[in-house]
Each structure stands twice: as structure tokens, then as C-alpha cells.
Amino acid sequence: MAALTMKVRRARRSRKTFIVFVLFANFVVSTVSAQSSGRHLTTIDALRRFSGYFHLQNVVLRGEFVENARRVSLRGGDNEMQAMLADGVSTMSGPVEVRGQLIDIGRLTPSDPRLGRYENKPDPDHWPKPGEELVLSITSVAKAEPDSTPTIRAVALEPWKYEGQSISLTGQFGGRNLFGDVPAAPARDKYDFVLRTTEGAVWVTGMRPKGKGFDLNVDARVDTSRWLQVSGVVKNERGIVTIEAKTLTTAQAPAARPVVVEAPPPPSEPGEIVFSSPTDGETGVSGSSPLRVQFSRGIDPPTLNGKFRLTYIGGTPPAGTTDVTATYDIGSHAVVLRLSKPLEPFRTVKLELLEGVKTFDGAPIKPWSVTFSVGAN
After folding, report:
1. Is 232 exposed, middle or buried (CB count within 10 Å of its CB: 0-12, 13-18, 19+)?
2. Which residue would you say has higher pLDDT here, 315 or 197?
3. What domains, with CATH codes, occur in the chain?
């Protein structure tokens, strides 16, 4: 993975003492890509909670259709969402598996052609805000075949069926969401990691990814070649599916299978940051760990130049300068920032994305910030 070293300059702002590091450099585009099929296997609960992440993304869900005189909905577990069927697609009784895209109506304009088949389109004078009105645009419907044994795919699609059960899953070590498989982290421990396959992903909590013959780093892409077998209890909270691990062992990767990539049409609304490591408000962060932000879609790399700002809040200025290595990964739409020397312990740090960054299709990225506290290192 190619990268470029960036010099960091210091600047004093206002009467309070704190140091601002503004990162300037040309970002190097990596050719490493996520090993996903371009589809997110998820739930209606997750779509509602993380609509900004899933908007216009290809999704796969399981549930049952609910029909009345005015609308068709898909119900999965305890949650329900309006559905819009593509031409030639019809509902089916019983458990189904559907494919389509989530549309967050508030992120589109009233004249957007993607809402042409939506019969319950709101009044343009009372257009909803982002996240207020969601519709699932369904492009295919099939009977949901029962799963004989628990798999990552099955748990990702129907976590309510396995919640509270002790199961065993095998998958690829995904680090701290290094491939951008899931929209948010459970933020229970600094060793939380993603267990993934080409057909889904879940979080693993409660155990460090370490055992006989392996000690994996949740922030190291090189460790994602390892496969693990995890045994633990399924939890489904706030749209995030986790396995509370009891045992961890290494496993063999299965034979590779052909993957069909489904690319959604490029959206025109503003992009945004949908995931970060560390998360906002996180404490005890390792000062030597890389900083990572994931965008909702592809970025125009040159527009990232000089757009990240790292700030120590309070305290005295640190001595010397710091070099930062930055890498933009096409596959996961993520930027990884690595510092040449650790952040100072027990300091509060603010990472900002400034205005001016654009997506690959020219749409702006919303300014963003996250604040975290460094631990003892």
C-alpha cells in the first residue's frame, strides 16, 4: 500500500494554549479494496439507525411483506419499512429475501427520478429532513431458505433469531472495521473487531484477538489475512450485531468463490464521514495507533490536501514536529493517518475534516470532527 509522508506545522490559536497540526500533502490512492460483493447484508433496524451510511447502497434483507390499501412494507423482526417495487417485481407471502437500495427521501430533491414510482411522495413544501422518511427500493424478491446452521450471513440478516444464543462462527479477521463492512462500532472495548465473509459481517466483543499462535492488531491491515473461529453469545443492540466472545481459535480460509459486484448509480447529494476510529468521545485511545476515517463513498484524492486538522486541546505545546503518513484506500473509501511519534498521553485531541473535500463525482463532503482522549500509552 503506497503512502506519502506529510510535514505537520504548528500554529497557536486564540489566547488559550493548544497546538493545531494542519496536515498538508498529496494523498496516495491505494489499490487495496474490500473483499465484499458490493451489497450490505443488514436489517431494517440498522437501515433506520444509520440511514446516512446506507443511503443509495445495495442492500440485502430478510423479512415478510405487509400490505394494505395504501402501501407495501417489509417487516423484519420488530421493525418495518415502506417498500417501492421495481417494474416486474411482486410481493410474496411468507419469509422472503429481498435486494434493493435504501432511499433516504430527505437526501434527494422532489424532482429526483428515483422517486418516480413512489406513490406516497411527500409534499415538496413540506419535504422531510434527512433520516425522517425512508423507503426501500426493491429490485428482486426470493423465498428465504431456512439456514441449517448459524453462519455470519444468517446472523447478519436475521439477528433476532439468534439473539441470546451461544453459537460458533468462522470468518475473516476484519480488524476495527478496516474494510468498512458495518456502519458503526459497539465501542465496548479497544479490542472490538469485525468478523467478516463476502456475505456479511458482525462485530466481536469481549476478547482480545489473541491466542495460541496468533496476536492480531485491530488496526493492522496485514493481519486481515487471518481467519478465526469465534464462539460466543449473539447480541443485537441499536442496529449493531455483535458476538460476545467466549473462545477464539484460528481457522482455515475457504476456497475463493466468484463474486458478482453490484455498483449503485453514483449519487449526487453531499458525501459524509460515516465511521471513525477512534470514535467521538472515546477514552483511553492508544497514542501510537493510526487514526482512520471512512467516507460514505469515493473521494477525489487531491481535494484531501491540507484538509485534516489535528488539535491538542489544553495543556502546553509539545516539542518538535511530527511526520504523518496518510493513505487513501479506494475499496473502503477510508483515509488512514499514521503519526511518526505517539500522541502525548492523557491529552484531549480533536481531529477535524475541513471544508473543501469532494467526492469522485464532484459533490462536497460535509465538514466533520471527532474528539477523543489519549490513554497512558
Report:
1. buried
2. 197
3. 4-32+271-373 (2.60.40.3710), 40-143 (2.40.50.200), 152-251 (2.40.50.200)
